[in-house]
Amino acid sequence: ILYNYRNNSKTANTLPFEGEIISQVSSFNFCYLLTEKSLQKFNNYGSLIYKTDANNFNQITQSDKTLIAIKGNELYYLDENNLLPIKIDTSEITVKDLQLSQDFLYIYNGEKLLNYTLTHPKE
Hints:
The structure is a single chain. This protein has about 120 residues and is an all-beta fold. It contains no helices and 13 strands. Strands 3-4-5-6 form a four-stranded antiparallel sheet, with no helix packed on it. Strand 9 (about 75-80) and strand 10 form a beta hairpin. The protein is elongated. The termini are far apart. About 15% of the residues are buried.
């Protein structure tokens, strides 16, 4: 609900999200919302840009146009052009939490904070 305080009225109503909200990240212009059923991107006006399958992701993080998702102990890079998840090889790393800042990926494995430079996949 968008409330207009000047004339004491509701100016917009939105439908509730399908499924439980699992993770949400945002930047100045965009918001990414991960639910049990879908991954959605909204602009700063609340308009839906895209909606795609959640692929059983547990968490998402983003910086600029880069979006990284976790499924179990596996990391995936999401390309906004085709929205197909690209698996990132982290076979020897336990992923408890992560943060993406510019092109640096920080992974917490439960004991240490690991720092990686992100190289974007070639098309």
